[in-house]
Structures are given as C-alpha cells and as structure tokens.
Design brief:
binds NADP nicotinamide-adenine-dinucleotide phosphate, 37% strand, 3 helices, Dihydrofolate Reductase, subunit A, globular, alpha/beta, eight-stranded mixed sheet, two-stranded antiparallel sheet
Length: 154
C-alpha cells in the first residue's frame, strides 16, 4: 500500500477559502489530473461538495464522512480514513482529511504557492520526518510563483 497526500498550500498553510481553492494555477490542475488518474482518490465530504464535476472521472472516488446515512452518486462512502486505504491511494483533501491521513502517508506531492493567502482551511505539518526528493519552481502567466515539491518519509 502507498499513501500519497497531494495538495497545494500557501506559505501560511492556507489551502482553501469558502469551500474553494483561493488561487487558480492551470498547470497544477493538469498535474493533479496526471498524478491521480487511474488511482483511488480519497477526500473529505466538504471537498467532495466543492467538486464542480463529480465523481472525478477515471478515478476510484472515496468520500469520508461521519454521517452514516449520507450517500454520494459515483463514490464509495467510508466513515474512517483507515477504511479508505489500500492499494495506491491519493489523498486529495481537504485540511481535515490531510490531518487524519498524514500518519499513514509515505509521500507528499506538495505545490507550494509562494505567498500568503487568506482562507479558512489550513494544513501545515512538521517537515522533520520528511525528505525532499524533487523541487521545480514555476510561475503562472499572471506572475504567481509556485514550486512542485516531492517529500518522502525518512
Ligand atoms: N489546496 C488544495 O490542495 C485543496 C485540496 C482539497 C480541498 N481544498 C480545500 O479545502 C477546503 C475543504 O477542507 P476542509 O478541511 O474544510 O474539509 P474536508 O477535509 O474536505 O472535509 C471535512 C469533512 O470530512 C469528514 N471528516 C473529516 N474527518 C473525518 C474523520 N476522521 N472521520 C470521518 N469523517 C471525517 C466530515 O464530514 P461530515 O461533516 O459529513 O461528517 C468533515 O466535515 C475547501 O476550501 C477546499 O477547496 C484544497
């Protein structure tokens, strides 16, 4: 089993605002698609609600909620993060689910957005158990700078 967290975070840890992502980086969306395609994607109920198109096509969608009566068309529903794990898993957010899945994660595909953003969903983590194996810096046509950073445990 491998568990990868895939996330984009501002320098101040913000990952979301009012149920959406506070920036638009088209290349990061392409990268997200490429890295998750054909795999299991695990998300919190609020991230599921935020998806413009559900389920994410070509992926095994799993949604985590406490609500035992809740159902989602096109997704499997689980009530504990552990029940979503198995095989090659990509954890796609949001902040609550990243926190719950972090102890199980082997890898983090982080898009570090170089700036501070206002928001209500924040995820930051202790970097000490993580080793950086790749880093690539880019900028959007509008000049927003960001880096793709791969972290592996150990
Ligand atoms: N920047 C990024 O990479 C990225 C990625 C994904 C999402 N986001 C953003 O993040 C925000 C959403 O994040 P969020 O932290 O508010 O919500 P979330 O993690 O997507 O979902 C939270 C919900 O998941 C369920 N849940 C959480 N922990 C659970 C547990 N241990 N066991 C069972 N169910 C559990 C609960 O659902 P119930 O309330 O139904 O019980 C909870 O309300 C949005 O703004 C979204 O756009 C950003």
């Amino acid at each position: 089993m491998t568990v990868t967290l895939i996330l984009a975070a501002a320098e101040n840890g913000v990952i979301g605002k009012d149920g959406a992502i506070p920036w638009r980086i088209a290349d990061d969306m392409k990268r997200f698609k490429a890295l998750t395609m054909g795999k299991r994607v695990v998300m919190g109920r609020k991230t599921w609600d935020s998806l413009p198109k559900k389920p994410l096509p070509g992926r095994d969608n799993v949604v985590v909620t406490h609500d035992t009566t809740w159902q989602a068309e096109g997704a499997r529903v689980v009530h504990h993060v552990e029940d979503a794990l198995g095989g090659e898993v990509m954890v796609i957010g949001g902040a609550q689910i990243y926190r719950a899945a972090l102890p199980f994660a082997d890898r983090i595909e982080l898009t570090q957005v170089h700036g501070d953003f206002a928001g209500d969903a924040v995820f930051s983590f202790d970097r000490s158990p993580w080793r950086e194996t790749a880093r690539e810096r880019h900028a959007t046509p509008e000049g927003l700078e960001y880096s793709y950073v791969t972290l592996v445990r150990g």
